[in-house]
Amino acid sequence: MIPSQDDLWFLPLGGTGEIGMNMNLYGHDGQWLMVDCGVSFNEPLKPDDIHSAEVVCADPHFISEQKERLAGIVITHAHEDHVGALPFLWRRFKCPVYTTAFTAEVLRRKLIQVGLSDEVPVIVVKDNDTQKIGVFNVTWLALTHSVPEPFGMTIDTPAGRIFHTGDWKIDKKPIIGDGFSPERFKALAKENILAMVCDSTNALQDGHSISESDCYEALLKTISAEKNRVVVGCFSSNVARLVALGRVAQETGRYLALIGRSLTNMVGAAKATGHWPNDLPLIDAAHLGYLPREEVLAVVTGSQGEPRATLNRLAAGNCFDLTLEADDLVIFSAMMIPGNEDAIMRLVEQFKGQKIRTLQQQDTDLPIHVSGHPCRDELKQLYTLVQPQIAVPVHGEPKHLDANADVAKYSHIPRQLIGRNGDLYQLAPNIGIKRKQVKVGRIALSR
């Protein structure tokens, strides 16, 4: 299956019909461009399998079998479901990788762990940069999300121009980076965008997502009222949340420490690329045990109930750096990813059994966690700004894709294409979907 010079194809291998393990291909004139190469955690390899693997990714067999046609790999941002599989799979592709400085720093640290630090050509790009990657001209467009330097991009070919959003939201007051700029995307309407390939994660949610700045205010209010230790579980890649908690520590007379390798790695990458404020100190986690209870603020891994992460070790009483006591507070500042509900609730019950209090989003009216993805009003706004001819919902389960397509339809986008992993989206010269053109699946990775 090779695209001709008249063809413009989109082929998702992962992340369309599911949330996580994003792996997308664009095809034109005998070449392919990969956008993102991510993982998911604790997922079965087959839909009806009761057993799960700790780290899984989309099966790359289709493109690794024709790697000579793979012009390059573009990574939109540093979340694990977009970059996490690349260090393990790159030997199957052996092509250049294009991304921005922060994501490149995160990627380099991962490559060192798998012995590829000097082998992978990583080309660092900036906002509005254009790179010719084989037959594709790719231009980077800054967006707002919950990680530094989230980017969408236009992918330009003689057969048509695509806007690939990556993960995004409209945040006018982000903790890190500049606020969302509608003018840049309004300009796309004049560029005759053929298709907008768009994040669907929150397409079922009415209204507008809440700003990271509002989450900071909610965490400040919550933690200011506390007199004992406070532990916050959140995603390690949410650097904006970590910066917010650093500010909360300053304003409440607490010391901030990180427990968990992924957290310290992410903050290290943020410091190396200028995204960590110089006036936000961190203490070594080993010092937490010497502090009065009211001065402790620890950020930890394990908000999804992962068995080997810090929150589980705290609940079991075998965390080397910190021990919790009755009336301490554990805040879950992260969404509950579908499929992790049981593991998270078991963790909560363990804490409650020790009279350690827990606070989840459903327990409070304050936004102690906010999403990095667009709700329906934001989807409508971006579709209206960009005015593509075709809407291609991705990054979501089937119900999310359907909801995204509905928003596109009501936003007067002429065509909506709803498919699944392995479907071939024909964007030019004809418009349509050929179902199940490529065999797709999942493979397990070992960390």
Secondary-structure map with pairings?
Layout: E1 8-14, E2 23-28, E3 31-37, E4 39-43, E5 53-58, H1 61-64, E6 70-74, H2 80-83, H3 86-93, E7 97-100, H4 101-113, E8 122-125, E9 130-133, E10 136-142, E11 151-157, E12 160-164, H5 182-186, E13 195-199, H6 212-224, E14 230-233, H7 239-252, E15 255-259, H8 261-272, E16 296-300, H9 310-316, E17 329-332, H10 341-353, E18 357-359, H11 376-386, E19 390-394, H12 398-410, E20 415-416, E21 424-428, E22 432-434, E23 442-445
Task: Describe this structure as you would to a colleague.
- The protein is α/β, with parallel strands linked by helices and 447 residues long.
- It has twelve helices and 23 strands.
- The strands form four sheets. Strands 8-7-6-3-2-1-21-22 form an eight-stranded mixed beta sheet. Strands 9-10-11-12-13-19-20 form a seven-stranded mixed beta sheet. A five-stranded parallel beta sheet has the order 15-16-14-17-18, sandwiched between helices.
Main sheet strand line-up: 8-7-6-3-2-1-21-22
CATH superfamily of the largest domain: Ribonuclease Z/Hydroxyacylglutathione hydrolase-like
Give a count of the beta strands, DSSP E runs of length 2 or more. 23
For this structure, what is the CATH class of the largest domain?
A: Alpha Beta
Poorly predicted parts: none
What does the main sheet amount to? Answer: 8 strands, mixed
CATH topology of the largest domain: Metallo-beta-lactamase, Chain A
Beta-strand level of the residues, as a percent range?
A: 25-35%
Number of helices: 12
Count the domains.
2
